[in-house]
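One chain given next:
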Amino acid sequence: MPYPIAVAANPTTNLVYIANLGSPTSAAKGTVIVANGTTPSSFTTISVGDNPAALGINNLTNTIYVANTSNGTVGDGTVSVINGATNAVSATIPVGSNPSAIAVDQLANTVYVTNQDGTVSVINGTTNTVSTTIDLNVVPVAAAFNPTTNMVYLVDYQSNAVSIINAATNTVVGIIGVGQNPDAIAVNSVTNTIYVTNVTSDTLSVINGATNTVAATVAVGNEPDGVAVNTTTNTIYVALNDGAIVVVNGAANAVSTTITPPSQ
């Protein structure tokens, strides 16, 4: 059966893309479901590589990138490129071992793919080829691009740190220590602020994008493992392992409320 592992939305086309991580015997292995944001019951299924685990979208080119990783036994180490106009795979790009996260520089049409061999594959979105490979010596589990500063932020769960890549030079320009076992990241490009969830610390690290230092640490609760930002209201939403959603006021760097979903 399908096992949704990643989701991304294209506000230009109002389409939602859902990657399904399967098993070697799963019928859903290697698929991306495309749902219409207006009528979610209407959807298309696209065959991609083995075990898609991460998604990235360039809204400007209407292109979707899918990282195809391993489930422990198989994995093809590729990125599937989906044409958003046709919802068909237009290219398959070999990258590093077990790609697991994607960040997109939309204006430069460049895609950053983190691999579990400790590298980052930099893809030219025009040619659909890897233009360079950056050696990190760490294994990032999440990635985000900050268009305000032209920096790529890569979260390393094991070293409790965030690596920074300058997208102009494709070089590592800094490392920021955060909480214990960080695993998710989001950027508010309006305020130039980066948010990182720390699973074991039960906290949210708030990084000032101008100084690339931790400006605040917010206690959010039980094992935060997901984060999203509303740039219009400067509100941060943190998903906890117990199912709750913590709402953080970005101006105050403080929890404003906690949303508890109804029981299933």
